[in-house]
Specification:
This protein is an alpha+beta fold and 454 residues long. Helix content is 32%, strand content 27%.
């Protein structure tokens, strides 16, 4: 009898132990994301807090949960046993300058960002800039905005690592179809601007747009763009989330049924999209300043994973600089900015921004224009004209003295400017500067031009 009693007692204890272990595993997976350490003791996995800040390329619409990076990122974490908390701040058409408080009409967005920063301890803050600003407004808007945001993050969430999510260029904008050449130029400008941000602020990049581009080459049957050819499909948001997940955790997520349902893709397609992430080619030159006629070589770093692949070079604006397609030798042609793109057959890309200073404006001519007001009073103005330089805008400076100082009078996109504030009865001196939004391309001031206003 005693042996039977001991036998049933052992069976009972074994069953209780099995039930306890099963309960712990369920609780671990569903609630606390617990794990079992090497000693067999249950321990809670630390939570990773992620704040996403962007526009409709981060979250499209309020109710469409499938077209948001957050949902796919949460699914990936859940299927892989990671404990994450994700919060999204996104508004259609939003630029980082709005979140930085640089736009008076968008103060609510800045307050929303500041409130979110202070709401918890963040491990990652992922920023996404408005796509078209990468094309020509990086210095004017993006750099100042990011500098402000980084300062705010440092104050409110000093432990957070800031990542920059680089989106894909558009195939359509404002209902107008963009040519493949224009789309490639936008892609190159986004990538080049990202490298500049990385160098200037030490930010890590998540080049999502490049993976969209590579998918088009390697898996053309996977549709990543919606009907507007601008916003991603669910599969596109899945790819974006996959890039972010692998950047943070360093491994591919475990593919689950729920992930596939929300992305509306097959398991094979999910594997293909997640497999796009990896280490690509880089260049020793992120940007270079060349004067007309000067040369430089874009030196490449090619990892073993893509070794043996030929790299082709191309210039996005050959009016500014040309490049040898095989050797990567760059030659400056005329003033302006262009991006040199290096690309492999599988779509790995890297970029070098080339700045060429504009020539000092020449062939400046002047004339006096006189008009009569309704009350019979004469209005005198000075008309200035000069030689045009492709892609340039102009700043006009004025002084009462030939030696200066010269103060900025106005700006114009034309090669003509009318000064309606020049007081009559004295000599005025003018200088012109060619600019384009990039300080490295700014020309020297022209020779002064004197005008006697009668």
């Amino acid at each position: 009898m005693k042996k039977k009693r001991y036998f049933f007692k052992i069976i009972y204890l074994a069953l209780m132990l099995a039930v306890t272990i099963m309960c712990c595993k369920v609780t671990c997976k569903a609630e606390d994301m617990m794990d079992v350490d090497k000693n067999g003791e249950i321990c809670k996995k630390p939570q990773v807090n992620i704040l996403l800040v962007g526009n409709s390329l981060t979250k499209c619409g309020i109710h469409n949960r499938g077209r948001t990076v957050q949902r796919h990122l949460e699914n990936m974490a859940a299927s892989s046993g990671e404990n994450v908390y994700v919060q999204t701040i996104a508004h259609g058409g939003a630029a980082l300058k709005g979140y930085a408080g640089m736009v008076p009409q968008k103060k609510k967005r800045a307050k929303e960002f500041q409130k979110a920063l202070k709401s918890r301890r963040w491990d990652y803050v992922i920023l996404q800039e408005k796509t078209k600003l990468y094309y020509s407004k990086v210095e004017e808007y993006s750099l100042p905005a990011i500098e402000i945001l980084l300062e705010e993050i440092e104050k409110a969430a000093p432990e957070a690592k800031v990542l920059m999510y680089l989106p894909r260029g558009y195939d359509s904008y404002g209902g107008k179809q963009i040519t493949s050449e224009e789309a490639l130029q936008m892609e190159a400008h986004i990538g080049a601007a990202g490298l500049r941000l990385e160098e200037e602020f030490g930010m890590d990049l998540i080049p999502v747009g490049m993976q969209f581009y590579r998918c088009g080459i390697l898996y053309p049957d996977i549709n990543l763009l919606g009907a507007d050819k601008k916003h991603p499909t669910r599969a596109g948001y899945f790819l974006t989330a996959g890039c972010i997940y692998q950047k943070i955790f360093g491994v591919q997520p475990v593919i689950s049924k729920e992930m596939l349902q929300h992305a509306e893709i097959s398991k094979e397609e999910a594997g293909q999209l997640l497999g796009l992430w990896g280490t690509g080619i880089t260049s020793n030159q992120v940007e270079v300043l060349l004067h007309k006629g000067e040369k430089a070589v874009m030196e490449m770093n090619i990892p073993e994973s893509v070794s043996g692949t030929k790299v082709r070079f191309s210039s996005m604006d050959e009016n500014v600089a040309v490049v040898d397609g095989i050797s990567g030798e760059i030659t400056a042609v005329s003033g302006g900015m262009t991006v040199i793109m290096a690309e492999t057959i599988e779509g790995w890309q890297t970029y070098c921004t080339v700045y060429v200073p504009y020539d000092r404006p020449t062939e400046i001519t002047t004339s006096i224009k006189t008009a009569v007001k309704e009350d019979g009073q004469n209005i005198t103005s000075v008309i200035l004209r000069w030689k045009k330089q492709p892609g340039a805008k102009y700043e006009v400076y004025r002084s009462k003295s030939q030696k200066g100082p010269y103060t900025l009078l106005g700006k114009t996109r034309k090669r003509k400017f009318e000064d309606t504030t020049a007081a009559p009865g004295q000599t005025w001196y003018y200088k012109i500067v060619a600019v384009n939004g990039y300080s490295a391309c700014k020309s020297k001031k022209s020779q002064e031009t004197a005008v006697v206003v009668p």
